[in-house]
Specification:
This protein is an alpha+beta fold. The protein has four domains: 275 residues, no CATH class; 72 residues, no CATH class; 103 residues, Beta-Lactamase, CATH 3.30.450.40; 122 residues, Histidine kinase-like ATPase, C-terminal domain (Heat Shock Protein 90), CATH 3.30.565.10. It is built from 19 helices and nine strands. The strands form two sheets. Strands 5-6-7-9-8 form a five-stranded mixed beta sheet. Strands 2-1-4-3 form a four-stranded antiparallel beta sheet. A hairpin with a 4-residue loop joins strand 8 and strand 9.
């Protein structure tokens, strides 16, 4: 156990150390930038205008990757660390190149120049070719594993070829300078660009397919797909800007940063846990980065378009651009904030979206308790809470718990029809508190939860009353059967025997003797009817829970030379006693209708369990004349409908073309 704990601690320290290294590289580049302040860039192209974006990405990706890798052990965290390190190395290389160009004798200056072209390509290709394969749930096997291996190989190849290539106009490469290796590396680098494109397209398609196949993560995976696509387009625009030395370069640079921030947010939303407590920081960082990028890119495009397409100076175009952006920045920020909140905070960011999801869960519930469970689960998942409890204030009322409540949960009183019906208790993730926005949202939807609790409480009371009525009716049947079987039946039989004794021991006129015999026979038949009625009220087998045997006895009682009753009862004895009694009496009424009214030769009783294992379906079908008089609203049909309704079931009788069929489904 001690060894396991030490291994876990070591695993957590390793990504933190790597993240610290990335941050250290980014901070070191700012130190060099301060030293180089005011110095001109070197004669060859190192693009110092990309220093701030590269250093900023390093300082963002480093801590994020360390957090994900240490907390969740997700491989995507290590990919983020590689991306951050790549851009940090490029930022450091840019400043080191400026330092060496203005201060001769700086050691390893040529190596710093090679880092400029090597670091960013490693970071960019890791984000485009490796990271998409790591996102989504499920094990990394099959095509995902192949995609990751191919992506890692291409990233390594790109890093090596860029480092060995000669920077145009720069000093000789310290490794391959003066040898054919530099030319070969440049040729290989150019030839593999189409391969990068194909693999990147495959990674994007893979993400898109996973987004369609995983409904729970569809929104986040779709965000990742858009981020990867935007990142690829921005890098193409960047290369076009290098070639044309025009506005695509100014627009592509902020778009690259925005795409990287969007991708980071998507990764965080896919793998992060609420207990990390970084949701708000991620939301604000992403909104700020996207808004800044959108404003800068729009400003560059507007100024370029107005100054080149209209006879305006750049100063005039700049004033117009500022005015337009001032009008657009507030609605643009609201639009970005809304979509980022939906990504980071889940469906709880918008009450309409949360209500839609809760409504869908309520519609899919099978009973009142399932409704409350769906509400609790939906609130916990949509608002990313630690625990949600919904409880009725009535004794023995419904109570459901999703997750676990903390030591001091927030309680919201639930009121319906101007009275308190229960309470909603919620706990934020460990180490966090519920923010005011979430509390206000919960207060807004508390009326919906209160109605669900009120409905569940009323239905629970109705179910309790119905169960009590069924128990009382069952007990009444037992008493009545006992009275008929042990009281009235034997009394009638005793009277018949007494009449027979009078006939044998007394001298009667023939007419009186015949009348007495008819009276004795009638009493004997009525005694037999009473005993039969007692057995029909509650057969002994049914009283012991043997429904299958009771149905077989029923079939034998009605079967004769011209009428046959067949029974196919599946696991009948496993049904609870209340439903057994209802099923038996409905089957008896159905067989009796077929026997007396339908002119049938055969009647089949079928009993099946429904797909959920809890419901029961009873079918009584004959080959008689069809509905006819059997469908008339008499006592028998009304009795069957009432028995089904008492247990919350359904009763349907229809014609099959070859007779009549009644179907009863009990939940």
């Amino acid at each position: 156990m001690v060894t396991e704990v030490r291994s876990t601690a070591r695993w957590q320290r390793l990504p933190l150390a790597a993240g610290g290294l990335v941050v250290l590289v980014g901070l070191a580049s700012f130190v060099l930038a301060a030293v180089n302040l005011g110095d001109p860039p070197p004669a060859f192209e190192v693009h110092p205008e990309f220093f701030l974006p590269d250093a900023g990405l390093a300082l963002v990706y480093g801590p994020a990757g360390a957090l994900i890798a240490s907390r969740s052990r997700h491989v995507a965290g290590w990919a983020l660390l590689v991306v951050g390190l790549g851009f940090g190395v490029t930022a450091l290389g840019i400043q080191y190149a400026v330092l060496g160009a203005n201060r001769p004798g700086v050691p390893w200056w040529e190596v710093g120049i090679q880092l400029v072209v090597t670091g960013w390509i490693v970071g960019a290709l890791t984000a485009l070719l490796v990271l998409p394969w790591l996102l989504g749930s499920g094990p990394i096997v099959g095509l995902r594993r192949v995609g990751i291996l191919v992506g890692v190989a291409l990233v390594a190849l790109a890093g090596v070829t860029r480092f060995l290539s000669q920077v145009e106009g720069g000093p000789p490469n310290p490794v391959s300078g003066g040898t054919p290796v530099a030319e070969v590396a440049a040729a290989v680098d150019g030839a593999t660009i189409p391969v990068y494109s194909l693999v990147g397209l495959g990674a994007a398609v893979h993400l898109l397919l996973r987004a369609r196949a995983e409904p729970r993560e569809r929104r986040r995976l779709t965000w990742a797909v858009v981020s990867v696509a935007l990142l690829a387009v921005s890098y193409l625009a960047l290369e076009l800007g290098f070639f044309l030395d025009g506005p695509p370069l100014g627009v592509a640079a902020p778009v690259v940063v925005a795409a990287h921030v969007m991708l980071l947010a998507a990764v965080f939303a896919l793998v992060a846990q609420p207990s990390w407590g970084a949701d708000l920081a991620v939301s604000r960082t992403v909104v700020g980065a996207l808004l800044t990028t959108a404003v800068l890119a729009s400003y560059v495009l507007i100024v370029w378009a107005l100054s080149h397409r209209l006879p305006w100076s750049q100063e005039s175009a700049g004033v117009v651009a500022v005015a337009l952006l001032a009008l657009a920045v507030v609605p643009l920020r609201s639009w970005i904030q809304r979509h980022v909140d939906r990504l980071v905070f889940g469906s709880g960011a918008e009450v309409t979206v949360l209500l839609d999801r809760l409504g869908a869960q309520i519609g899919a519930a099978s009973d009142e308790r399932s409704v409350l469970e769906g509400l609790a689960d939906g609130l916990r998942a949509g608002l990313r809470l630690r625990g949600v409890e919904v409880e009725s204030c009535v004794a023995h009322g419904p109570r459901v718990l999703s997750g676990r409540l903390g030591p001091s949960p927030v309680a919201i009183t639930l009121r319906s029809r101007d009275r308190t019906v229960g309470a909603l208790r919620l706990s934020a993730p460990a180490g966090e508190r519920l923010d005011p926005r979430t509390v206000r949202l919960l207060e807004q939807i508390s009326g919906l939860v209160a109605m669900a609790v009120d409905l569940a409480t009323v239905n629970l009371d109705l179910e309790t009353a119905r169960t009590r009525i069924l128990d009382v009716r069952q007990e009444e049947r037992r008493l009545l059967r006992r009275e008929l079987h042990d009281g009235l039946g034997p009394s009638l039989s005793g009277v018949a025997l007494a009449l027979a004794a009078i006939d044998r021991t007394s001298t009667l006129e023939p007419e009186d003797a015949a009348l007495l015999e008819r009276l004795r026979q009638e009493l004997s038949r009525r005694a037999a009817d009473v005993r039969e009625m007692a057995r029909a009220l509650l057969p002994p087998a049914l009283e012991d829970g043997r429904l299958g045997e009771a149905l077989q006895v029923l079939a034998r009682r009605f079967s004769d030379g011209g009428f046959t009753v067949l029974v196919d009862a599946e696991a009948a004895d496993e049904i609870d006693s209340g439903r057994q009694v209802a099923i038996y009496h409905i089957a008896t009424e159905g067989v009796l209708n077929s026997y007396r009214h339908a002119g049938a030769r055969q009647c089949r009783i079928a009993l099946r369990h429904e797909g959920d294992g809890r419901g029961v379906r009873l079918t009584v079908q004959d080959d008689g004349t069809g509905l006819g008089n059997a469908a008339a609203p008499g006592i028998g049909l009304s009795s069957m409908r009432e028995r089904a309704a008492e247990l919350g079931g359904t009763f349907v009788i229809d014609s099959t073309g070859d007779g009549a069929r009644l179907t009863v489904v009990l939940p």
